[in-house]
Design goal:
The protein is mostly beta strands. It has a domain of 80 residues. The protein is 0% helix and 51% strand. The strands form two sheets. Strands 1, 3, 6, 7 and 9 form a five-stranded antiparallel beta sheet that branches. The protein has a four-stranded antiparallel beta sheet with strand order 2-8-4-5, with no helix packed on it. Strand 4 and strand 5 form a beta hairpin. The chain starts with 11 loop residues before the first strand and ends with a strand.
């Protein structure tokens, strides 16, 4: 089931997950793709530049799994200053992910940006 009815859920779990893209190629954030019959509410995504130089990030929600389909950018080529953080989304801009979607991250410098996401899992 691609988009379960969250009114009839049996459990809600809070989660926090991280990702450090180790390449400048598009990275599929697999931990944020829900399992079958599950919906994730992405509450926040923060990107922190852990280097002494500015680093660029693009983050998109894709309409297909594993980075397939059309990408819809939440952040596009944003330069994060050295040792600074960027809040890409928070509770005021939360969104839902279904099992048929994916989040893809592209960075300009490998291993320069650490991402942390908080989300709720509805099953």
């Amino acid at each position: 089931m691609a988009n379960p009815n969250i009114i009839g859920i049996s459990s809600v779990y809070g989660n926090t997950i991280g990702l450090i893209p180790s390449t400048t190629s598009a990275t599929n954030w697999t931990a944020l793709t829900p399992a079958a019959n599950t919906v994730y509410k992405i509450d926040s995504i923060t990107a922190t530049n852990v280097t002494g130089s500015a680093a660029v990030i693009t983050l998109a929600v894709n309409s297909g799994v594993a980075g397939a389909g059309t990408n819809f950018r939440l952040a596009y080529q944003i330069s994060i200053p050295p040792y600074a953080a960027l809040i890409i989304t928070d509770k005021s801009t939360a969104f839902y992910m279904t099992e048929t979607q994916s989040i893809v991250v592209t960075v300009g410098t490998a291993s320069a940006i650490e991402l942390v996401a908080t989300y709720e899992s509805f099953t």
